[in-house]
């Protein structure tokens, strides 16, 4: 998904969640006006990519205890100049799980969710925001996960228990959307 395709996706994105619709509009404007928005050096708001990972039974998701933020999140990270957010999401998932990319599968090539969240200042890095483009993926939960230095732990969490790990509205939205996706694709 190149920059132009992503821009079109964000500019035409529809969501029943008002906050997510607003994030899509901000993302559309960002892509149209900030040439280096895929670089973490871009001040203020820049693009990241992540993946909401389900197991084959579609009843668990993969969360990681983020080392810097000390919170449970889905795998993902900075684009570092790469404008193909699908490639970035897959790369970040592979790096953060320790699995080869061939073990990670897109359940849909479309943008699954959009979020904008604040990242607090740390050391030399000022406070900033991420426009996180999220994709729905699958990993076999029987595969061993090695992880990497970016997390303390990786854990398969039943969807109905995700709120015990992270109570953010955007994570709740991911749970609801994935449950809806499962119902639609089992019919």
Please name the CATH topology. Answer: Nucleoside Triphosphate Pyrophosphohydrolase
What CATH first level would be assigned?
Alpha Beta
Question: What fraction strand?
Answer: 25-35%
Determine the mean pLDDT: 94
Residue share in helix: 25-40%
What does this structure look like?
The protein has 187 residues and is an alpha+beta fold. It has one domain: Alpha-Beta Complex (Nucleoside Triphosphate Pyrophosphohydrolase), CATH 3.90.79.10. The protein is built from 4 helices and 8 strands. It has helices spanning 3-11, 18-33, 85-97, 169-186; strands at residues 45-54, 60-66, 72-73, 76-78, 104-106, 113-119, 128-139, 151-158. Strands 1, 4, 5, 6 and 7 form a 5-stranded mixed beta sheet that branches. A hairpin with a 5-residue loop joins strand 2 (60-66) and strand 3. Helix 1 (3-11) runs antiparallel to helix 2.
